[in-house]
Amino acid sequence: MPELPFRTVAVFGPGLLGGSIAMAVRERMPDAELRLWARREQPLEFAREQGITPHTGTNPVEIARGADLIILATPIGVFEDLIRRMLPGISKTAVVTDIGSVKSYVHRTTGELLADRRRIFIGSHPMAGTEKNGIESAYADLLQGATVALTNPHGAAETEVNRLAAFWQALGCSTYLMDPRNHDHTVARISHMPHIMAALTARCAASGTVPMQDLQRLAASGFRDTTRVCSGPVGMWADILWENDVAIRETLQDCVQDMHYLIDLLENQDKEGVRRWLEEGKAARETIRKELT
């Protein structure tokens, strides 16, 4: 069996993604000591009952103390306060990472806080999730095949970056090292914008003069699949839009411009232009979704 990249893994925030990471660690790294921290006892009780780990607690210092890898899986807005509380328990040799979907903000706040205190912080963003939340919806294979973006503007040693990459790879993920700003502009277009468009589609459907009964009777798989992601946790997504506002506003402006272009095509009765617009959209999707070799 290959050597474990980390002997003790502490997950702070066992929700959907944090809980799934914990389950994957338990399944794929059974020799590692797995710890869970939560603000409330309920998810920890669930973790113990399900046999995920007996090492749980609500004291962040106790859970952090002696851990080789600390994973922040709470909402991003909680990171700084949580780090300040657990700091006495964070070893100078431990690797701290997060799973937030915005990286510049995290490095500007939490990352700098840790770097100033000579702690190791490397950002992570697993491109995985569902519209559900809570550890009750978590499962070990959620991360299987996912790409994890890694960000390292604080200059952690290459050996530590490689250890963290090895951890994610052991959970069935691939890793991709990125600049935080480039990451945020990329996810604004590939992850955050689809959520916005899902919410916009649902809002648009409900805001017109069509009777709700008609909408409900005719809503089929197209509406269901297109709008599924906007059923996710609203508070979390409000934070994401707030924390990545610059990249999202830029993306929204491009989107508005393209919508006006489509409106002009329709107003000018340019059927061939509409066909080209749709073809370009189809080609863009197929290019983005094309598997890399």
Order of neighbouring strands in the sheet with most strands: 3-2-1-4-5-6
CATH architecture of the largest domain: 3-Layer(aba) Sandwich
Q: Under the CATH scheme, which class of the largest domain?
A: Alpha Beta
Cα(first) to Cα(last) distance is: 28 Å
> How many whole angstroms does the radius of gyration measure?
21 Å
The DSSP helix count reads 12
* Number of domain units: 2
Give the name of the CATH superfamily of the largest domain. NAD(P)-binding Rossmann-like Domain
Number of strands: 9
3D shape? globular
* Average pLDDT over all residues: 94
Order of helices and strands: EHEHEHEHEHEEEHEHHHHHH
CATH fold topology of the largest domain: Rossmann fold
- Segments where pLDDT lies below 50 for 5+ residues? none
How would you describe what is shown here?
The chain is α/β, with parallel strands linked by helices and 293 residues long. It folds into two domains: 8-178, 3-Layer(aba) Sandwich (Rossmann fold); 183-289, 6-phosphogluconate dehydrogenase C-terminal fold (Orthogonal Bundle). The chain has twelve helices and nine strands. It has helices spanning 16-28, 41-49, 60-64, 79-86, 104-116, 158-170, 180-207, 212-218, 221-227, 234-243, 245-267, 271-289; strands at residues 8-12, 33-37, 55-57, 69-72, 95-98, 120-121, 123-126, 147-151, 174-178. A six-stranded parallel beta sheet has the order 3-2-1-4-5-6. Helix 5 links the parallel strand 5 and strand 6 (120-121). Helix 7 crosses helix 11. The protein starts with 7 loop residues before the first strand and ends with a helix. The relative contact order is 0.11. The mean pLDDT is 94.
